[in-house]
Amino acid sequence: MTTSPLLQLPETAEPASAVQLGYGYMRVPAHVPDHKVRHLEQTVIRFAQGHGLTFAGFFFEFHCGSREAFDELVAELVRTGARHVVVPSLRHLALHAQLQVAMCTYLDEFAGAEVLALRHPGARRTEQRRLPAGAGAPA
Length: 139
Hints:
This protein has helices at about 35-50, 70-80, 95-110, and strands at about 5, 20-25, 55-60, 85-90, 115-120, 130. The chain is of the alpha/beta class. It has one domain (about 20-130): Rossmann fold, CATH 3.40.50.1390. Helix 3 links the parallel strand 4 and strand 5. The radius of gyration is 14 Å and the shape is globular. About 30% of the residues are buried.
């Protein structure tokens, strides 16, 4: 299973307009220790909550080049009407900047979702960034 729900919604649930759901998306290579993954999960959740989101769960990609969890994420965004995806960095979407832009654009166009990244290329470690819908990585 590639998801880790924190908030269970009924299959037909429409989120209340005041509730803004956010989902996390992370690539997790096999060599990364569990305690580091858990720490990053907690950081993503705090970041989402700090942006006024109700964190609903994670979608994890475990295999290099796989899009299974990403496709499940998109389906869940459409199903729930959620409009926010939180990633530790855009590199969790893809390593190549053009593919990062394409995936952000796809999330925006297909699911109406924006990507919030804790870090982005060229940012100071403490800098955080909200990517507007359709925007990509900085040049």
